[in-house]
Amino acid sequence: GLVGSTTIGSGATISPGNSPGELTINGDLTWGGGGSYDWEILSLADGAGTGWDLITVGDELLFSSLSSPNKFNINLFSLSGANTAGALANFNYATNYSWKILAASNNIAGFNAGNFNLSTGGFTAYNNLHGGFFSIAVDGGDLNLLYSPSSAVPEPGTWVAGLLLVVASTLIVRQRKSSLA
């Protein structure tokens, strides 16, 4: 869809497109404390606007009265089909992801990641993150949703590689000692 300058205040929700889709703001978009962006993803491969929701802002993304106790909410939802909540096909919890969820033509002013509440229940109900986490960041005029895997527990393959390295090192040391004797 296409709308003019828009303010999302307390209790209001913006949700682009039709599971997922793109919404174009012809002007400024202002996010206020207590407002929400319902963000949906259906496909990792199809890109912004078709694989996941995208808001395109013709001018600036502005923040009104956001603070640590008065946050803007970004609610994450994964889909297994059009309008169907479910597991995201081909999602790998051990992989880094970055999704552009908003593109502002002119500016994103006053961004502070601490003023946002990322609600992941609509995603984690169907996709196990294994300790991974979501965050948001600004890159020029883009607001990106980032997923980072947990670094606390190595993958099983890492354990096997480490064990093989220890065994190989031990064998080399033993061979050297026996050749010196």
Question: How would you sum up this structure, described in words?
Answer:
- With 181 residues, this protein is of the alpha/beta class.
- It is built from two helices and 13 strands; from the N terminus they run E-E-E-E-E-E-E-E-E-E-E-H-E-E-H.
- The strands form two sheets. Strands 1, 3, 5, 6, 9, 10, 12 and 13 form an eight-stranded mixed sheet that branches.
- The protein is elongated, with a radius of gyration of 22 Å.
- The model has no long low-confidence stretch (mean pLDDT 90).
> Rg to the nearest angstrom?
22 Å
What share of the residues lie within helices?
Answer: 10-25%
Q: Calculate the mean pLDDT score and round it.
A: 90
One letter per element, helices H and strands E, the order comes to EEEEEEEEEEEHEEH
Share of β-strand residues: 35-45%
Q: What is the 3D shape?
A: elongated
Topology:
Blueprint: E1 2-8, E2 13-14, E3 22-32, E4 36-41, E5 54-57, E6 60-64, E7 72-81, E8 84-85, E9 97-104, E10 107-108, E11 116-120, H1 121-124, E12 133-139, E13 142-148, H2 156-180
Parallel strand pairs: 1-3, 2-4, 3-5, 3-6, 4-7, 5-9, 6-10, 7-11
Antiparallel strand pairs: 7-8, 9-13, 12-13
Structure in a nutshell:
The protein contains two helices and 13 strands. With 181 residues, the protein is α/β, with parallel strands linked by helices.
